[in-house]
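Fig. S4 source data, part A: sequence.
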Amino acid sequence: MRDGTLREAFGTGTAAVVSPIGSLHWRGVRRTVGDGEPGELSKRLYETLTGIQRGELPDPHGWMALVPDAANSAAVADEGRR
């Protein structure tokens, strides 16, 4: 149904991942977004993104990159100096 009602809102970012917004406050008036709880889209985006980050879901866009641990990085750097 498309009646212009704001049903869901969220913020997103590197550290925030997907953060649902339960209410908005503007000019002294507080408005609840949807029912004040995370919406279906927010939940689905959060689960998908964190699943990719944890390696539990495939990375269809090639976003992930292997970061070597510090011990292996130091060993590789030492070998390069020899």
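Fig. S4 source data, part B ends here. The chain has one domain: 10-81.
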